[in-house]
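[Amino acid chain]
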Amino acid sequence: MLIGADGRDDDAARAEPAFDLHAIRFVYGRRQVALDGIDLRIERGEQVVLLGANGSGKSTLLKLLDGIVGPTGGTMRAMGRDVAAVAAGQDAFRFHREVGLVFQDPDIQLFSATVRDDVAFGPLQLGLPLDGVRAAVDAALAQMEIAHLADRAPFELSGGEKKRAAIASVLSLGPDVLLLDEPTAALDPRTKWVLVNLIRRLGEGGKTLVTATHELDIVPIISRRVVVLGEDRRVLADGPTEAILADRDLLIRANLIHEHLHEHGAVRHAHAHDAEHHPDGDGEPMADAPDRWHGRAERRADALAPAASADAETAEAIE
């Protein structure tokens, strides 16, 4: 029986949920409230989206879940450990093998001469034998379908390729939990849906996924549950993905869609738009038809998967 730094055995820790937060508060510089009374429980193996407008505290919550910082107030446990203790350095090395965070900006995590070196960095720090490092790197590159990019320099990659390389650099550690901060931000539509499809596969493979986003159209693909953070930096709603996306009034209150007034001569009417108006580029407002998101998003992800595979094969042939 293995005993952790907190004196508890591993079996007892595994019986706990992935995350258990009670009245969590976080304040930057003693003045800026980022989270204000968060109660949240996430079970192991769940795929959860943190949905909220910019400034609602999504990124801060991910940093807390990853043990980068500890809470200003309240109590929280992650993977059977006290997060405040992890943030202070207690058992942190072991914890970060189990929980991995992918930042919104992939350049934060890509700093080596090649993609292969970046993906190998974590396993090497763990002191794995070289055969184990190679196996971990190959598996992570394969999961993200970027083996053909292994010997490229990060600065030579496109935005979408960098995102996939950053995820691979975390996957090489073999974490049980993957935290993703706005993974599809600033990507073109095709690249975005290829990445969404890859994230979906990670969830289907049993990973606990917690993804922060405000892009409503990807939510049905990568989650079964949605936690909505309001602009007061508290949990506004928590429920099944389909029910949350169908609640138009809730999405308006969370500033995820907005009422848009149109005038046609003497006639006025209002309908809802998402925060980016027409994010999918097809001219159809997403938010006034939430019941269509699921089918359309799934069709798009499925349709682009073969194309991504063909791209990879072409690149390998060129090299």
User: Anything to note?
Assistant: Residues 260 and 266 are 17 Å apart (CA to CA). The radius of gyration is 20 Å.
